[in-house]
Amino acid sequence: MSSRCDLKWRRMLSILFAGMIAGLSGTCASAGETRFSSGPEEFAGHRYYWLAYWRLEVAIPDDAAPDDRFEVLFGTKGPEKRLLVFEYQGARGSMNEARSEGYEWLPVPLGALKPGTTVVLHGGAGPNRPAFLAGVRVTGKCQAAPRVKPVAVAAPNATPDSALVWSKGLGFEADDYTRRLWQPAPSEPDWARAERSARYAGVALGKVQRWLRERCLAVRDEKSGLFRPTGRQWNYQDTAADCYPFYVWAAYYTDLEILESVMLDVLEAEQRLCNHLDRLPVAYDMDAGHKEEISFDAMIFGAAEYAKDGLVPIVELTGRKYAWFARFQAITDDIFLHARIDTPYGKIPSTNVEVNGDLLQILPRLYTMTGDRKYLDWAHRLADNYLLPGKFVPSRLSDHGCEVIGGLGLLFAIDRTAQPEKCDQYKPHLEYMFDEVLRRGRNSEGLIVGDLQPTDGPHDNVSVRDGWGYDFVGFLDYDLALGTTRYSEAIRQPMRNLLLPKYREFHWDDRSRDNTADSVEGGLYLLNRFPTVETFVWADREIATLLVDHNAPDRLWDTHKLEANTVRSVLIHTMLHTRNTIARPWRPGLQLGAAPVGTDGVCVHMRSDEPYEGRLQFDIPRHRANMGFEQDWPRMNCVPEWFTVEPDAERRYEVRDVDGERREVSGRELAEGLAVRLERRKPLRLVIRPL
């Protein structure tokens, strides 16, 4: 009698314990049954896991009998069949089912059940739509509920360490399904792609907003009004050039109120406290409350870094609307006002190739923004100094050398119409420089190494650095300016090779996330011109697994320069997934993604965990409206344009709500922001095309 009681109590405790464990991922609805009450999605009154994003590891209860039956609460949203792949006891099988809308308990043919073993459920790989499940159960003699461990996956059969909650049925390989996913101009809306992008952008922008509010604002010095991410000093080569601009970017994309208050106040404070020689600034000691003495060359270096890496990214987004443009122009004017280096072509401010590379990227922008010829003349002084003596090639091809390659390429593109005779003069010199880089600066996969080598390549024993994409921006400008394809294959080759195993978690310079961020940034500039499946997949993999960390929702970036540069690349990549659309205001739990439709349209997917009212703002041709470029020249320190609208009242667009009305609006309305209203967890799907 006592033995039977002990057995009874042990069995009751086993059932209770199993229910408690199951409650980590769901709740026990009845004996032997687990419902996914904490599943990430909801449909028809049930929470569920979509097997495109999750693998479920289900433990068979200890009291299961061999002839008990394993069942899943299988969901469907229409007549299309959905795939469930199951793995058990070394065997693998699948079910491809279509049912009426809603959910149905379906048996999974596992054969004889064995207590304590694990069933793995996932969505398979390839083009089939994965199933979504709202529960699991064991029927028959079993009374305990199965324990369920959900694992976010990059592909339905991926391993746990490649978890990506936003990836739909996609491994990090360029298979047929992936190639269809990344078609540059699909004729019909690809809602799976748009929804996948919305999941990514929701995670990324949610983290960026939290980083801005919780981390960046916390390192603002109360007395001076400046930011102090690494200590007592506000300086211009790091804090102003690499931290501040991307705090501003975070505010631009997620919190305009902070942009127009805190960020502009910091701009005013740094000028008031730090201007030293006219409007050229020096570092400021916030603890001591005074400027710090530095050399003239160090002052010029910091000012050039601030203008190119700090102010150019802001002005690229905001144009001349805010005071950042005036600061950008003033610093550049005073750099040349105090230029001290005599050359046969006129005075230049520095002999440092990085400083002059920075200025070669700044000056063409200022010329097209203002029409002031002096900026073009100053740029020609620098270019003449490097190119006209002949056979110029920078010895360093990564950071501190790649700036001059991109700067000369951008100037060449501007000169094609601004001063064609200079374009003709520079052409053979640029070809020599580019050809030497390709001859003495690449490995066998086509990636540019860190330093120019004394002999012909390929150089597989030399480190590849994170500036490879920045270098190729200059090559691309040359081809676009002349309408040629001289360097197209050289640019495409490394883009096709980025998915080679050696470049997974590759250390471009060292283990800093900043180096991965720089490499991805350069790749995205090229990807905007050469849509390449391998590079799309590589960028997604590097950003999501190394930079955003989807497996750690509460892990945010630090505020120092390497982490701020990481946020920069995350935002550039996020705009690929939203096609530059922005939800204003951004709210936690919001998702926004988009995909191209044809060559000139876009489909947008929005969803919110809570009711939402706001504006869906579309991008404009910033290269023309903000920068004054005739063409969208490839360039560093910008956000590529993926979908834009003409911001005037005359240009008309069709906006079609897939579940509602069709209407006609102006480009100005889209640029200012289309009013949207979202019900809780109900997607809004829009197709926008020009008329």
Descriptors:
691 residues; alpha+beta; Jelly Rolls; Immunoglobulin-like; 6-stranded antiparallel beta sheet; 18 helices
Mind sketching the topology for me?
Layout: H1 2-22, E1 33-35, E2 41-43, E3 46-50, E4 54-59, E5 69-76, E6 82-88, E7 91-97, E8 102-107, E9 118-122, E10 132-139, E11 147-152, H2 176-181, H3 191-216, E12 233-234, H4 239-254, H5 256-274, E13 275-277, E14 280-281, E15 284-285, E16 290-291, H6 296-318, H7 324-337, H8 353-370, H9 373-387, H10 402-418, H11 420-440, H12 468-482, H13 488-497, H14 513-527, H15 533-548, H16 561-578, E17 582-584, E18 590-597, E19 601-608, E20 612-617, H17 622-625, E21 652-657, E22 662-666, H18 667-672, E23 674-678, E24 684-690
Antiparallel strand pairs: 1-10, 2-3, 3-10, 4-9, 4-11, 5-8, 5-10, 6-7, 6-9, 12-15, 13-14, 15-16, 17-20, 18-19, 19-24, 20-23, 21-22, 21-24
Helix pairs in contact: 3-4, 3-16, 4-5, 4-6, 4-16, 6-7, 6-8, 8-9, 8-10, 9-11, 10-11, 10-12, 12-14, 14-15, 14-16, 15-16
Give a brief rundown of this model.
By secondary structure, the protein is an alpha+beta fold.
Describe the protein's architecture and organization.
This protein is 41% helix and 18% strand. With 691 residues, it is of the alpha+beta class. The strands form 6 sheets. Strands 1, 2, 3, 5, 8 and 10 form a 6-stranded antiparallel sheet that branches. A 5-stranded antiparallel sheet has the order 7-6-9-4-11. A hairpin with a 4-residue loop joins β21 (652-657) and β22. The longest helix has 26 residues, at 191-216. The radius of gyration is 28 Å and the shape is elongated. The N and C termini lie far apart (84 Å).
